[in-house]
């Protein structure tokens, strides 16, 4: 799997966020290229204090990837103590019978399985500064205190793009592999 991006292609545009609001966003496009003729156009969209990573096009990639075009965004929320937190570093769980995926709560062992390797070490290599539960990172005591979040430099597009590939693209690709067998 390859993640290709160029900040030289970045642009400013108005986008509709998951919150239903229009935002003037800084958009950094990227390509995800992988097996099974997978070529996805993804982008990070950042606006004041928040943002998201989305799939903007699946091109001729397997139809399962349409799920990522229709949803499964990775939300980004800036924290008061510096750096943004990635809301719910969950992963896509695929239902083969319904041919549909949903983002669910994940722990590091789920991410290790999705990556077929050490997800925490890989994320640190992609620029993530810390990863842990909301309770560990922020002292959260809400009902989401055991959800994973990651902290990274808000000006670096690579960490959230890489997290998106790990938690959204790789699980769908695994479903494609299973369906094509």
Structure in words:
By secondary structure, the chain is of the alpha+beta class. It has one domain. 27% of the residues lie in helices and 39% in strands. It contains five helices and eleven strands; from the N terminus they run βββββαββββααβαβα. Strands 1, 2, 3, 4, 5, 6 and 7 form a seven-stranded antiparallel sheet that branches. The chain has a two-stranded antiparallel ribbon with strand order 8-9. A two-stranded antiparallel ribbon has the order 10-11. Strand 8 and strand 9 form a beta hairpin. The model has no long low-confidence stretch (mean pLDDT 92).
Distance from first to last alpha carbon: 19 Å
- Quaternary assembly: single chain
Q: Structural class, judged by helices and strands?
A: alpha+beta
Mean pLDDT, to the nearest integer, reads: 92
Globular, elongated, flat, extended or rod-shaped: what is the shape? Answer: globular
Q: Please give the radius of gyration in angstroms.
A: 16 Å
Number of contiguous helices:
5
> Largest sheet, described in full?
7 strands, antiparallel
Order of helices and strands: EEEEEHEEEEHHEHEH
| DSSP strand content | 35-45%
| Helicity level | 25-40%
Our count of domains comes out at: 1
Number of strands: 11
Spans of at least 5 consecutive residues whose pLDDT stays below 50 are none
